[in-house]
Design goal:
alpha+beta; 434 Repressor (Amino-terminal Domain); 2 domains; 14 helices; 51% helix; elongated
Amino acid sequence: MTSFGHVLKDIRAARGMSQATLALALDSTQRHLSFLETGRSLPTASFLARICRTLDLNIAQRVNIYDASGLTNPYAQRDMGSGEIHAALDMIEQRVLKNWPFPALVLDPDWNVLRSNSAFDQIFGGLMPKGNAPPNLLEVMMSEIFQGLVQNWDEAAGVMFYRLQRAAAHSPRIAQVLQTAQSQGRFAGMEQHLGELGEIPIFLPIRIALPEGPVMELSSLLGKLASCQDALIEGLEIELMVPLDEASEQTMHALTSNT
């Protein structure tokens, strides 16, 4: 089996599709797919494009399957330190984060903070570790200091846990931090508290009381740029924090009135 055959078979298996099912979706034949997976045939550029379109492969998957095919890869593989990536991050910071009135940041798959706006820096900057390396938001959130600021930890822990569980599938670092946090009992009261809520509300806020400051009820809007065609940038997450009530909104505006 060729490298391309391995990649195609892995993608098909991950979707729970048989060769016959995928062949039908691709308007091809099971024989053709069998030949591709065993290396008896190689894909054409048009058929490879059809695979990407039909299976709605993300950019990282497209980069991988093009590389394995031996065909010219139209998706550039850039380094995180490249000028193009830095320019893309600067654009997100200037066009998105800077124009969001509340705390906002860009996270990589390990939850390292690559960019943040002035509202985030002013409200939460004191919690971030200092140094040349990007601060890791997850390590801050799992710290005793941060947990002490969250008034409804057992309630908010459920929101955090399921988001982290999804992220851990793509990040060994997050998986390790999550495992450590679980062993330390960070999420011990989560299931019991959710069970006691009865009917779970539409939004479960994170209720944060800053040192010597007012309480804020927050959630987050998570997003990506829809037209992104780079695997590294596609893997980033833009987090826009949202106050869930008028008092929290006024508090945030007051805390950032000088920005």
